[in-house]
Amino acid sequence: MMRPRARRAICCLKFRVIYLLLTLNVIILLLYGDNYLRTREVTKVKSTTSIAKTSCSFHSLSPKEAQVANFLKHSIAWPETLSLPPHLFLNDTSDPAQSTFTILPHERGSWFIGDQLEVLIKVSDFYGRPKTSGGDFLLARLHNPTLNAGVAGRVFDHRNGSYTAVFSLLWEGSAHVEVTLVHPSEGITVLEKLTREQPDRIYFRSFFRLGSVYKITNCNICLNSSRRLCNYTDPSTGEPWFCYKPKNLSCDARITHAKGGLRVYLRPMEEKLFQSGVNLKVSIPASGPAHIQVLSQYDYFYRSDFNFPWDFPGVTKKTMQSSPSGYYYQGAWRSLDGTTVHQFNTITAISQCLKNKAVHLYGDSTIRQWFEYLNQSLPDLKEFDLHSSNQTGPFLALDYANNILLTFRSHGPPIRFRVIPVSHLHYIANELDRVVGGANTVVVIGIWSHFSTFPIEVYIRRLLNIRKAVVRLLSRSPDTLVIIRTANPKALTLYETLTNSDWFSLQRDEVLRAIFKRVRVKLVDAWEMSVAHHLPHSLHPQPPIVKNMIDVVLSYICPKTENL
Ligand SMILES: *[C@@H]1O[C@H](CO)[C@@H](O)[C@H](O)[C@H]1NC(C)=O
Ligand SMILES: *[C@@H]1O[C@H](CO)[C@@H](O)[C@H](O)[C@H]1NC(C)=O
Ligand SMILES: *[C@@H]1O[C@H](CO)[C@@H](O)[C@H](O)[C@H]1NC(C)=O
Ligand SMILES: *[C@@H]1O[C@H](CO)[C@@H](O)[C@H](O)[C@H]1NC(C)=O
Ligand SMILES: *[C@@H]1O[C@H](CO)[C@@H](O)[C@H](O)[C@H]1NC(C)=O
Ligand SMILES: *[C@@H]1O[C@H](CO)[C@@H](O)[C@H](O)[C@H]1NC(C)=O
Ligand SMILES: *[C@@H]1O[C@H](CO)[C@@H](O)[C@H](O)[C@H]1NC(C)=O
């Protein structure tokens, strides 16, 4: 995983670029205002006569929040990638098949548990010429299939075409290195451009009706501001949302919200940067051995008081460090943040843990999965039929004997579900304000995947609102347990990349961690739990991964559980 720290040479805030895009015989000129945080006006000029305006309305954040947003944007800035020449050839771009990784020898000659393993990655183009600039998106994993063990590595970009992946060695025996090129740096240039120029590429629809008159119009955060709009900005959070005003109907006649579709302009060459089996999530081969043997530390120095695994001499001196949040061993997630992850393998173990609890799940379909998992695992937890769709919820389930309440509600716009009644479009921050909280209340939040196509400010704003509501909840009911699920990588096709690339998810994941860093919440590190696992990346991780996530959740709820 790559977590770049340094800033780009050209800062996006001072950004003012005129980009020329040729699509069919239409020239689209896009001009950017330099205040990204308030209202960003994108002017598309189709020929010289008709002028169309799309406004992405984020509304003004308070000066303090604007500062936070600026800081966050700065901290997730990706290493500068080269702008693409007008005639880009695939052969000049990063090719995983021509790239290699090499395990660097340990200075001591062999590896022990607690050591860090360094792997040098050299990226080359299709001709095999080494790249001389960075910005490729790489993921790295260390694993042992026999032990069912795995851990995510951390990737450092040297910005000269070489990268170092660093892994923590956490088990004895063999450890295999796996390096994946998710996107070539040229693809990152395209993804950045898409967010800047086509933030409205996913569009939404609302159905309006009064008596026998009905209309369907488009809705978004970014709409053509020259047209009449219905303003559905949430009064309490200030979260913006708009629809084009339906003719002959009032804005109050809105009945449903739904995902419309994807509308995107890409040059044919740009599409070639996202080809499965070529340069989209493809493994990079090893130049030599791809695995090492890790010896038990007891063979060398046994210390009864050592603080595994961070206390080893030498480890803390290194500048390139991997500090994973956990790892798999025999298929079970072991946390490294001090939490003991228990195995909740029986119905009794789960229901005893949840006895007398109200568990409220809020978010997208990756949180709905957790409702489905618990609903399926506990026969005495009966779902009450709220007549809602199985995609959108809301859901409610009760176990009367054990006094367990489980609920799920999806987050508000830009939720990308099929059809949802507008009366079910609730913002998480507002929902949290309605929770009394207390020692028997567990709040679980997972919100990330539907924000990928928008400028990051939209997500920052949403999380700052949720954060404020979490802080209010924790101050009125300090015993409430709040758990947050992070983003995770998924299976990518060209379509999935343009709407929901892991690169967009990674940026949002970093923002999420930063915003909740100083809030008393527990994280479920879905990112590392997916990267470290042998199962393929999936937006909705497969049952063995979900089982591990639920074990982490239940271990937060019931930390003292013994003899399950
Ligand atoms: C934006 O709205 C104006 C006024 O209705 C119209 O002339 C223009 O064509 C619209 N542009 C787009 C891209 O829809
Ligand atoms: C790209 O490189 C390959 C292998 O070096 C070569 O066969 C092919 O002709 C090149 N294509 C172009 C358009 O240069
Ligand atoms: C790239 O940068 C790293 C770190 O500064 C350095 O060790 C390495 O030699 C450089 N590689 C090349 C090919 O310049
Ligand atoms: C929408 O409404 C909000 C709050 O009522 C207001 O602050 C904002 O300026 C309005 N936006 C537009 C584009 O009318
Ligand atoms: C609006 O209502 C008027 C009067 O009933 C009707 O003539 C017109 O066609 C309607 N316009 C639309 C766009 O439905
Ligand atoms: C909950 O479980 C019941 C019984 O298996 C099933 O019919 C229902 O569809 C489940 N609900 C959800 C939201 O998964
Ligand atoms: C919801 O139900 C439909 C049709 O019954 C089914 O195809 C779909 O997979 C279900 N979705 C979920 C998330 O369970």
Description:
This is NXPE C-terminal domain-containing protein. The protein has 564 residues and is α+β, with helices and mostly antiparallel strands. Among the domains are: 90-189 and 272-324, Immunoglobulin-like (Sandwich); 330-557, 3-Layer(aba) Sandwich (Rossmann fold). The protein is built from 11 helices and 30 strands. The strands form 6 sheets. The chain has a 7-stranded mixed beta sheet, with helices on one face. Strands 6, 8, 9, 12, 19 and 20 form a 6-stranded mixed beta sheet that branches. Strand 10 (154-157) and strand 11 (162-168) form a beta hairpin. Helix 5 (365-377) crosses helix 11 (543-557). One 2-acetamido-2-deoxy-beta-D-glucopyranose binds next to loops.
List keywords for this structure.
NXPE4_C; 564 residues; transmembrane helix; membrane; 30 strands; alpha+beta; Immunoglobulin-like; 6-stranded mixed beta sheet; binds 2-acetamido-2-deoxy-beta-D-glucopyranose; Rossmann fold
Overview in brief:
InterPro entries: Ig_E-set, NXPE4_C, NXPH/NXPE. The chain is an alpha+beta fold and 564 residues long.
The CATH class of the domain at 330-557 is identified as Alpha Beta
- The termini sit apart by 34 Å
Bound molecules: 2-acetamido-2-deoxy-beta-D-glucopyranose
> What is the arithmetic mean of pLDDT?
87
Report the CATH architecture of the domain at 330-557: 3-Layer(aba) Sandwich
Number of strands: 30
> What is the percentage of strand-forming residues?
25-35%
| CATH homologous superfamily grouping of the domain at 330-557 | SGNH hydrolase
The helix count comes to 11
CATH topology call of the domain at 330-557? Rossmann fold
Low-confidence stretches: 1-52, 302-317
Strand order of the largest sheet: 24-25-26-23-28-29-30
Overall geometric form: globular
**How much helix, percentage-wise, in residues?**
10-25%
